[in-house]
Predict the structure.
Amino acid sequence: MNTPSRDTLRRKRHERLRLRISGSTERPRLSVFRSAKYIYAQVVDDTTGNTLAAASSREAGLGDGPGKTAAAHAVGRAIAERARAAGVSAVVLDRGGYRYHGRVRSLAEGAREGGLDL
């Protein structure tokens, strides 16, 4: 029997989520991607297809800390600061097919602390 990989299942979940979640000009989409080592976040306006702000734990100063969850929290604060500088105060969270748990939750909480309305 041929079982699909975890990444294939995640991509299918993400496709289902994207049927319901879309970013607009007033409330863009906060897209999260999680790899084994790093976490990435983008604020995307889907009507124009533009990325308004981006942050990742690969950047100097954001990935430092005791663990990956702390790095995700720092990325959430950074993306909130950059989004507010771009004039965005409210976003829709696109968790990318991942559970709202661990690093994804930590990033969302960091973004809330940074002043974004999720």
The CA atoms of residues 43 and 52 lie 5 Å apart. The longest helix spans residues 68-85. The chain has one domain: 6-113. DSSP finds three helices and four strands in the chain.
